[in-house]
Amino acid sequence: MKVLLVIIIILILLVVGIYCNTLFRGRNLIWGQIFRELKMPENAQVAILGLNYAGLFIDVAKRLKAPGKVTGVNIGNENVTKQESERIKENRVADRAKLVDGSLLNLPLESRHYDYVLSTFTFHSVSPAINRGRAIQEAVRVMKPNGTLIIVDFGNLQQYRPLLNILGFQDVRVVPTGINGWWGGPWLKTSVLMARR
């Protein structure tokens, strides 16, 4: 009985440890790898759809120099707007960071304006699932013709590939992130979708 209890405790600690790794370290490593691959220019126009991972918005702003700008779309949480507004002041990036409130299904953003459209842990929360296609169409609408779409999320990101192909994206990749994106274990894992026309 004691052996079984010890095994259960070890498994629980392992799951918690893997979850904490993703929460506090893994997400940074995932986005660090993405940015190394992107080589985003300092004057890029960037939209972030959903601010579920607060560190991303300020990190992108710090990578840019005016006239480069990142626009973060807050999806229905007033506290997020307040927190991110404070972070903009603290990090002195007001000249290249902007916040707007909106919906993934009707983005309050200019069409064909952004070089990069990023989203992290937001698309899985769009419901019903059929609306995710509409959210993808909105993300594509605000992108420049040669823009790049990146979605970091759990769930089946392959589901977006057929729609993106119809919308003119020939280069669509979905890459697993490994243990750095496991939310407790491989049963809830993060993937990265990167789509370029």
From TrEMBL:
Keywords: Methyltransferase, Transferase. Residues 59-151 form the Methyltransferase type domain. It comes from the Bacteria. InterPro entries: Methyltransf_11, SAM-dependent_MTases_sf. One of its GO terms (biological process) is methylation. One of its GO terms (molecular function) is S-adenosylmethionine-dependent methyltransferase activity. The keyword Methyltransferase applies. It comes from Limosilactobacillus vaginalis. This is Class I SAM-dependent methyltransferase.
